[in-house]
Specification:
Layout lengths: L4 H23 L12 E3 L5 E3 H17 L4 E4 L13 E9 L1 H6 L5 E8 L2 E9 L4 E6 L3 E4 L2 E2 L12 E3 L2 H8 L6 E2 L6 H9 L5 E4 L5 H14 L1 E4 L18 E5 H15 L4
Parallel strand pairs: 3-4, 10-11, 10-12
Antiparallel strand pairs: 1-2, 4-5, 5-6, 6-7, 7-8, 8-9, 12-14, 13-14
Amino acid sequence: MMAKQAELAAFLPELESVTRKAGDIAMAYFRTGQRTTAAVSYKGGGSPVTEADFAVDRFLFQEMARIAPEAAWLSEESVDTDDRLESDALIVVDPIDGTLAFSRGDARWSVSIALVVGGRPVAGVIHAPALGETYVSGRGLGAFLNGSPLIAPQRAEIAGAALVAPRAMQDRLARSPQGFVMAPRTPSLALRLADIASGRHDIVVAGPNARDWDIAAADVLLEEAGAMLSEPEGVALTYNRASLARDMLIAAPNSLFDESLALAREVLEGKL
């Protein structure tokens, strides 16, 4: 599926259109600066989920079955089964990435969807309707924000770089000799990673336990924009595995990636 670039180029506008419509569904429940009109419940771990998450999930399941019928399905708000492991193509969805922010009227949430083929994402859309931002990327087709091409700024040195990290790591990283600028942490991990492609910050370190639906669309976006996302091993991530949980994640432009990876390893080893 989508083996040819021409097929991927034809698919990508359809994927964007569907994702934008999903964003419209979510926006019907969103109120800037106010509590959502959607009913809110809580998962086993205490994280919130809303009726908007489920409405977007249902819509995307139906639409992706129409435009990508050969692909299996993986979504944060759907029951996962091992059946997807038999498929070479997989749709990976986070109906609302940043549900807590969404429920509180914070605009920094997104609808994130990716097509994975052969274990790697080949197309992705991260749509943040409350911010008016839509990131689109396709393997070999480039990365775009609201239709404009994106190339991650290739900073020459890590000193003074804008860094986003979990609160538990911020003090240690702030003490490093590189003199990092600690940047604000966007609730949606997909948007946090996309901000590297747009040049809003330089490095993202994310703590363990992110899931594939949080990162798949951002992964292809970063790759196409001249950046990289990995776990501490420093190799490209693979998808459609039995386990969905991720280790610590590191993302940075290609020019800073090796140094950023070394920094993250120092944190893991307790050297910072």
